[in-house]
Prior knowledge:
Helix content: 25-40%
Strand content: 15-25%
Radius of gyration: 22 Å
Number of helices: 8
Distance between the termini: 50 Å
Order of helices and strands: HHEEEEHEEEHHHHH
Number of strands: 7
Amino acid sequence: MSEFAFENYGQLKSAVAEWLMRQDLEPQIPVWIKMVEAFCDRELRTREMIKRSRTQATGQYIALPDDWRKAKNIQRMADQKALGLMAFDEIDRYREALRSGRVTRPGAPTHYALVGNTLELAPSPTPEDPVEIEMIYYAQVPRLEEAEAEGAVVEGVNTNWLLRGYPDIYLYGALVHSAPYLKDDERVGVWEKLFKEAVIAANGSDADSRFSGAPMVRRGKGFGV
Length: 225
């Protein structure tokens, strides 16, 4: 937890402007904040990002949640059995092994692959024999700009869990992303160090953040081909 505390998006933007001491850069601040959020989607893994989504699978593919960023665990709800992760070309080999009879067909999906914005299951369930699948995943950081647009209607506060719990990530990250405008500003190196330390501290705050999903199934292993 940082010593900084910004109650909302507006206060964060004001703080960034104050630290920069450059009022002419205020129009760029929302862009830098969005760049911080995009960075966190890629590099941050905390318990606050973990979400669950359940769906009835009736075919080969199911849609990923809109805020999906990375799998933590995919499992069948009936027996809580985790599905193994495969590359998309490996799941094709597995499916062919099932069709040819080289592998005995199990009664429910045992593996999955990420294909675009979908989860591909193998073996595929059918409409006559659907399978409930639970996706436990890391979700993207809720966008502050969107919260500002909807906040008055939704909750009256333009904030999110990242701003409440890790405000230093937002502040130092926005300052770092201002570097192309600041050019030779000697403060950039300090901000980069503080930003990196804040991200490392956040990732280390929860041991579960070190696990990103089921192990990859390698070629020729796991299905007898």
